[in-house]
Amino acid sequence: MTLIQTWVQTPLAQAIGWTLVHSLWEGALVALVLAAALWAFRSSRARYAAACLAMLAMLAASASLSRA
Question: What is the pTM of this model?
Fold first, then answer.
């Protein structure tokens, strides 16, 4: 077995893999909510605030993943 094949079977590699999977679906969900907000809001300030909240939501989502 090669070094990479051995490493892929470790618990750390599995944890990293699941973290990536969860961040993808959480990011997609945040992006959908942001797209709806950008479509609904006409004010540039409201759109900017929605985008900032989306970035904070992604940060919060990544923080919640590290506690799981």
Answer: 0.76
Helix axes 44-67, 11-40, angle to 10 degrees: 160
The answer to whether the CB of 22 falls within 8 A of the CB of 65 is yes
Contact (CB, 8 A) for 61 and 23: yes
d(CA 31, CA 57): 10
pLDDT in tens, 14-67: 888 888 898 999 999 999 999 999 999 999 999 999 999 999 999 998 887 555
Radius of gyration of the CA atoms of the chain, in A: 17
Structural domain spans, the chain: 42-68
60 token code pair: 């919060």
Q: How many CA within 13 A on the CB side of residue 39?
A: 6
